[in-house]
Write a structure and sequence with these properties.
heterodimer, A: 98 residues, alpha+beta, three-stranded antiparallel β-sheet, two-stranded antiparallel sheet, 3 helices, 35% strand, B: 338 residues, alpha/beta, ten-stranded mixed β-sheet, globular
């Protein structure tokens, strides 16, 4: 049987966010830091929390910036990794049926 | 500044009450009062914090069965009492004996037993108390609706010889609660009315004093000038008040009592407690009550805090989010499960 591994990002229970006019402010309720997401990151966060699937996210970002799908997927991964480093997302792995 | 909660008893049922989280009444519905020995520890806290003012609050602090003893023990400090105005005779007589210069009894004029507002008998009782307190009394009013009226308060200030200021508060939301409050969308309409009343009050030398949670943008430039000309005490602030509950819990303020708190322990002073609470709320301060606050020059220059922190924190959302991502090439990594 073939199974596939994929990265899974989750927003923890302690993460709170407020959508402002031109930014999203993300706060860890347990931590001292706030993160201000601007531009495409703010757009992505808003998409992410609606919620959409990964494919829909990539398509929405592509439509928003007229980029190719590979470019958008690359950017999306980079942003998610950055957010994981900031602690506003948690990265894990899950196995799924092929 | 620190408020000492000495009682969680209150016969009022104000729809805008934002003390609900703080007034965690015991399960059997009995009210509780701060023991005198604990009150002494609170006074020691004030002393080591360099706070020369004992601010007694509740619930209704004057319902404390040993209220005169509390006042006696707090002597030597300026005493401020926050009351709904329906003060028991023994407590009222005690307050009447205090020198006018050492005491302020802040009477909430729209505290009410009924959802529709104070009834006639309640209003008469409250007015009679204000008359007896004279210059010890300062009137307070909580704005929970835009169509408020301060004219009767101006008249009462003059007739009773009360302090020539009316303290205005905005009804703020309890974080996670369901009290009646003034929605920030209503602030500009309230601001216009405040400016109108400030002008009228100035004609009789009664000035308005704005409590916490007001924002600069609820007033036009012209209205701010009117307020300044009327000698209004203007402030666009929101700071940790330090409300110390019966059980020693210290909260940022009533609206945040259920969520932003620490404990009064050991030799902690007010600055340390305030620092702890400020650290807890600091990240949320980037935002304000409006979506535009975080880029507002007045907020960025610390001239306006962006309104009540409880109202700001209500704007923050929380929801579980989960997203699965394919590998770098858009393909799922294949793993063979033997």
């Amino acid at each position: 049987m073939t199974r596939r591994a994929r990265a899974v990002y989750t927003v923890g229970e302690m993460i709170r966010w407020a959508v402002d006019d031109d930014r999203v402010i993300v706060v860890n309720d347990l931590g001292p830091d706030a993160h201000v997401l601007m531009g495409r990151e703010a757009l992505l966060w808003r998409f992410l929390t609606v919620p959409h699937g990964y494919g829909e996210l990539a398509e929405l970002l592509r439509q928003a910036a007229d980029r190719t799908e590979p470019q958008v997927r690359h950017e999306l991964r980079a942003i998610l990794e950055r957010w994981a480093r900031l602690g506003i997302l948690t990265r894990g792995t899950e196995m799924g049926d092929g | 500044m620190a408020n000492l909660i000495v009682s969680d008893a209150c016969p009022m049922r104000c729809p805008f009450c934002f003390a609900g989280d703080q007034m965690a009444r015991s399960a059997n519905g009995l009210s509780r009062y701060l023991p005198l020995a604990e009150f002494d520890r609170r006074l020691a806290f004030l002393d080591r914090s360099g706070i020369g003012e004992a601010r007694l609050i509740g619930g209704e602090p004057t319902l404390h069965p040993q209220f005169p003893e509390l006042v006696e023990r707090a002597q030597g400090r300026r005493i401020v009492v926050f009351t709904n105005g329906l003060i028991p005779e023994r407590a009222l007589a005690c307050l009447e004996r205090l020198p006018e210069t050492q005491c302020t009894v802040l009477v909430n004029m729209n505290a009410t037993r009924r959802p529709g507002g104070p009834g006639a008998a309640e209003a008469r009782h409250r007015a009679a108390v204000v008359h007896r307190l004279g210059a010890r009394a300062k009137l307070g009013f909580t704005i929970s609706r835009v169509n408020f009226d301060l004219d009767p308060l101006f008249k009462l200030v003059i007739a009773a010889g009360a302090q020539r200021g009316i303290r205005l508060g905005l009804a703020q939301p309890i974080l996670g609660g369901s009290n009646e409050y003034l929605h920030p969308k209503q602030y500009p309409a309230a601001g216009k009315r405040i400016a109108d009343f400030a002008e009228r009050g100035a004609q009789t030398d009664v000035r308005l004093e704005l409590d916490c949670g007001f924002v600069r943008c609820m007033f036009s430039d012209e209205q701010v000038k009117i307020l300044a000309d009327a000698n209004t005490d203007l402030g666009w602030r929101c700071n940790p008040v330090l409300d110390i509950a019966l059980d020693g819990t210290v909260s940022h303020c009533f609206p945040l009592a259920g969520s932003v708190r620490t404990r009064l322990t050991g030799d902690l002073d007010a600055a340390e407690l305030r620092g702890r609470l400020a650290a807890r709320t600091g990240p949320y301060r980037l935002a304000g009550i409006y979506r535009r606050c975080s880029r507002c020059p007045l907020k960025l220059q610390s001239e306006c805090t962006g309104g009540c922190l409880a109202a700001t924190m209500r704007r923050f959302r929380q929801r579980p989010v989960r997203i699965a991502v394919p590998d770098e090439h858009g393909q799922l990594t294949e793993i063979t499960n033997r």
